[in-house]
Structure formats: structure tokens, C-alpha cells
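Researcher: Please generate the 3D structure of the following complex. Treat every line as part of one assembly.
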Amino acid sequence: MLSNLYPEVPLEEKQRLFDQVKADARFEDYLYGCYECGICVAACPSARFYDFSPRKIAQTLAREDIEMFYEQMNDDIWNCSQCFSCVRCPRHNNPGGLITIMREVAVTNGLRSTKEALAGYTRIIYKIMTTGTQVSPDMLQEDAFPDWGPQVKEVASHLDLWRRALPPETLHTTGLSWQVEERTMLELYTIWKLTGVLDMISELDEGLHDIMEEVMDDALEDQGFTIA
Amino acid sequence: MNRISLPMAPRGTTPETGRTFSPDPDNAPEEDLREAIAQLGREGEWIVQPVPEPYYEARTKYGRIKKIPFEKTWHHKSCGQCGHIPGYSTSIFWLNRFLGYDYFDPRDQTSCTAWNYYASATSNQVAQAAVAMRNFSAAYETGYYPLIHCGTSFGHYKEVRHELVHNHDLRRKVRDVITKLGRPFVMPEELVHYSEWMYAIRDQLKSRVVVDLSDITATVHPACHYYKLQSGDAIYDPEIYGGQRTAAVTAVVQDLGAHVADYSTWYDCCGFGFRHILVQRDFTRSFATMRKIEVMKEEANPDVVLTHDTGCVTSLDKSQFATQAHGRNVGVPVMSESQFAALAVGAHPFRVAQLHWHSTDYRPLLAKMGIDVEGAWAEFQEDLSKIEKGAMDYLTWDAVL
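Model: Done. Output below.
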């Protein structure tokens, strides 16, 4: 059945996004066709809890069904768990990898559904891009993880002391997962800038981009780190 | 609540079918990427960092030999392990010291950033490869060899390696970035996960076990990103599950003397979801408990769940608290096999395994292992008191070995 969920979006725009997905160097490695056997769906955790199907992703891309593709870009891709259980595919398709590419295109183009899916996630992007570590001990707060039980409160209330009771010297941290050298962080900032990742964030969250750009530029400038 | 009794081979369990996969490396369905890596090294595309000797020769899925270094390892830490379940990494380091191995715990290391990439896609192919190659370069410059703690880092780096070998344009772009950083462009001869190192040292651990584990039943969750991404490069052993599933974790746990029980949803992921664990945990909680923990409880009734990746320990452990409110059949402690192995050879449950960072009650397990939980906790409290009073700044390695 043809998708008609987004009739207000011109077909040319949907085609433009599809072309970006197809132009990714990994696309041809990830899609070889589909037997419609459903093995990927049987293995998929997200398919058990959402109206989601890795088989439909592979089929849609193989058929170049632009309308369905656009629907999936908005309604499906953020349900994927990225576990890659779907690579059990007998045709060697990689629906999870295809979704990675689709997500990347969705972020680069600032789709509204993507902004909504990542609305609560931006603090993590800030953490990983500015510190080089994804989750830090001080993120373990009762209000952030109420479902993890009273043990989170226990950790939070003893955080500094418990971190000092860790034998590895690199782990005496609360704001980072481990001690990261300044030069290492500067090199990471350089990578984000040289590869266009920092620019990519501006499509997702302009405020976040501006804050991170300032943090990175100031640090690079302070240390005389220049990007050729 | 019936334990599934599997026929036991001398060093392993075999599936009920009894079928054994006999791999033939000469007829493997996938290329051996390492030959291409070496060739690119000979052509001057990059420096290939050799695995330091002595190394263990393990078999991968299709029977190829993979070199696992025993020491001179550069520990590529995991942000989730170090940040939220630090007994995981501490146990890996402790085991190195316990066996007298030389290793390096670097500060010149970033996360692989793959958790973020799989959660939000706020990166791209060049950036992800540049992060990997910057870390490999940092390891090379120390003279130590990368040992990757996180299953996702390991899987993602294998993906990156595959892309770099096959995509010259990508390789050129990434090399330009690394050159601008003033670093050498280096690819390790092998990508090695810490659980492969655990597999390599299992005999040495076996001879040092001080805790009787014969009454302990464990279920093993094999981590998706360890063996599903670039699947040919994971450890398999005909004596473990007939060579049909990865031997990582299971081989170690059995050699330590514990019973590994099977369960039907072993292939399912843990429910981590990368984005879900942080901002959509209803999915994670449901999947981790209903498809994993409850099935394990019903089919194997384990004393402990053991796995070998950051996200898996987190999802399977932390998800159980809220699920108890719904009266579900949960309540099994979860930890890495590195923590379990450390305990088995005499490590302290709080100074080393740092189990107080875990959510699900681990005390019944420790008691069943014959470990004095209250006494150990009192000792740890004394450590904390000394730190608080300034009698010592930190808990040191000298105090825990």
C-alpha cells in the first residue's frame, strides 16, 4: 500500500533525502535484495514492542519506494535498537546499518521528527563531544534514573567518596568516565570540526551547536591549537 | 523453574541437537581482512602494529587463528563501564595485576563515541573512523597494544576497519585528519576484545580459583556487538556449544567451575537500544526483563547472569528494579565475567568488583559462593572512613592485591 502520511511534503524533497541515503558509501554493502523471509523481524527486539519491521526497511529501500521511505524516516528509524540482530539475514542485508545511514541523513537535514526523537538526548551529545566520554558518574542522579531504584540515590550521595575508593588512578573522576588529557580532547574537537560533525549539530539544535562551538574554539585557541 | 540439563563435554556444553560446527578456514564465506590489512601495510598505506609476544592463538568463527596478547596491553576503556559500573574495568585491571602482566591504562584515550553514534547518528563515517584511528595511534605511540573493553567499541571498530580496508577514499580522508593531528596512521594487526583475553587466560585462572563455584548456576548473555558485527572475527570453540555460538564468557565461566545453563532467548539482545537506555527506557525495561531475565529465571533459574559488554550489564541489571513493581519474575544479579572471575580467584567484592554500584541484590550470590558479605562490606566501609578522614587519598592497588 502506498504511504500517504506526508502528502504536504513534495515528492522532490523525499527523493532528495532518498538520494542522500543511497549515495552513502555503505549503502551497497548493506542491501542486496530481500527474500521476505522475515528472519530479521523474528530476531529484532524493536519489532516485538513497536510497529516496526527491519524487513520493511530493506524492502522499501530496495524498491526505492520514496513515499514509504519518507514515512519510515519520520516514524520508524528511531525505534531501531541498533543491536544488529537483523544481520542474520540470509541475503546478507544489514537493515540496522541502513537505518544508521537513514538516521544520519535525518539529522543532517534537521527533520522535525528527528529533533523530537532526540529532544531529551542533547545533553548526552554535549557530554560526548566536549569531554570524549559518553556517560559520567555524576549523571547517576535520582531524578534522571528513578526507575533504577534507590541504589542510584546511594551512588549519588557518596559519589566523590566512592570514586576515590576505585584503585585505577584514571577513574578518580565524577564529571568524566576517566581522566582524559587536555591534548586528547583538543584532538577530538579537531576531528569534530574537520569532519563536519559540529556543523551537523546546528541542523539538530542550533543552541547546542553554538555552545559547543564556543567551548571548542575557546579551548583550541587557549592552547594555540590550530586547524589547518 | 526447571533447570535445563545439557549434556556436558569435558570443557563445554553442547546444544541439545548435538551438532558440532567444524569450521574450515580455507572455505570461509568471508574474506580474512587481516591479509588485506597487512598488504596495505606493505604498500605504505598505514603502519600495522603487530600483536606483542607472547600471545594466545584462539579460533574464530570459521576456524582462523586470532592472536590474543597476554600483556603489554593498552586498555581502551569503556565510558559506560568506567562511569556507571566501574567494578567492571577495575576487575580487568586487577586480573592483569593478579597475573603479573604489564599493561597501560591511558589518559590519551577517548571513547569510541559509538554509543552516541548508534543512539543519535550525530556523526559520520569519516569522524567515526578518525576517532578510532586516533586512539590506535595513541596506543601505538606508547608501545602497548589495544585491548578493547567495550563490546560496542570492539564491534564498531571492526566495522570501521572493514570500511577503511575497502574504501580508499575514506582511508585518504581519515589519514588526512590523523596527519593534521601530527600522529602516525596505524592499524593494529588484530582487534582484540577483553573477553577474548579472558578466554586466553582461563587456564591460568582455573588453577588459581579459591571459591567453590560447583553449586553456582550462571546464564550467559552473549553481547550483540561482540559477535554480530563483523561476525567472523569472534572466538568460537567446538567444545563450547558445539562451535555454534561464541565461546566468549561461557568457556571462562565453565573453567572456573560454575555451571552454565542454557535458555531459549540467548540470541536476543539485552534491550539497551543506545538511545532507549537513556531516553526511552520503557522499551529497555520491558525487553531486558520479559525477553531475557524472566526467560532465564523460568528455564534455568540462575544464581547470576554473566555477560561481556557495558550496555548488557547495565540494561539487564538496572531494569529489574522497576519491573519488580509489576510482580514480574525477576531478581538475578548481573555482572561481567571479569568481575565473576576476579571474585573466583579471591578478589574483594567491594574493593575490586565494586558490586555496590550494581542494582539487583548480589548478596545471596556472594553468600552462596561462601564470601562473607557483611565482613567485606565492613572492610570497605573502613577504607571509606580512612579516605574521608584523610588517612589516605585513594584506595590504592597495593591495598587490594
